[in-house]
Amino acid sequence: MEQGYNSNLHHQERRRTIRIRRSALLRANLDDINRPSIKIAETKQELEQAYALVYKEYLEQGYIKPHPSKLAYNIYNFLPSTCVYIFKSYLTVISTLTQIADSSEFGLPMDALYRKEVDRLRNQGRFVTELSALATPKEMRWCNLMIYLAKTMFEYSKLTMVNDICIMVNPKHVRFYKAILLFEDFGKEKFYPAVNAPAIALRINFDKIDKRLNQVYKDYDFESNLYNFFCKMNNTTQTLYVDRIFANRCSPMNEETFLYFVNLKPRIFDKLPPKQIEYFHKLYPSLKLNKPIIK
């Protein structure tokens, strides 16, 4: 009896903790941020700031090795369908999140560990995306900027008809993603060499996310109701529209920006298969990459 009582107390305490954390997420602290804005990065300067922020945070966590460029990006960042969401204080990027769209040429980063799980979704004809490169400086985390990036990402996912949002996270962060953003288990824990740390795959069935958010948050006050925040409050896509970013956004980096980031990491194309090299040749026919065009 005592064991059951203690278990119930533990369950109640856990629910109370989650409720407090959910409530706190909507207490945005933006007063000290100069001209706060949120958008999808487009310029070289915006992308460079986002990559630098990810590099700094990931290096401190031991997820990546030092690099002379002091920037963290990979081949997926060169794809037109990849969205780098940024939260800015005037001209300075202070938080970022990247969303990578599945493609036949490149797949997703998580294919390295969870190809079988992702293929099950692909075989159902579902449009899958993967989140990565979430970074906010420690001194800014009290502002809850991530929740605004998540809201923008949700809205853009609706515009682009996404079916599934997947992510690989360190096991220590699983509870947050499941309790707050309602991710569900997708793949068991595995070691991810790319970040020298364990990872667990999580997934949101985006077709059902509005219903799930409503079920979980329907009894919460308005100020702590993430269903209202994500699904009913003024859309941040208004900002996306102003910045001329639409659901059919497919324009690649301009040639100057592309070359800038390639030259900072000149070996980034070394291990790409021919079909991926050919993909970039088609995007930038005037450039000579490090492998010939496949006829």
TrEMBL record:
Residues 49-205 form the N-acyl amino acid synthase FeeM catalytic core domain. InterPro entries: Acyl_CoA_acyltransferase, FeeM_cat. Pfam families: FeeM. This is N-acyl amino acid synthase FeeM catalytic core domain-containing protein. It comes from Desulfonatronum thiosulfatophilum.
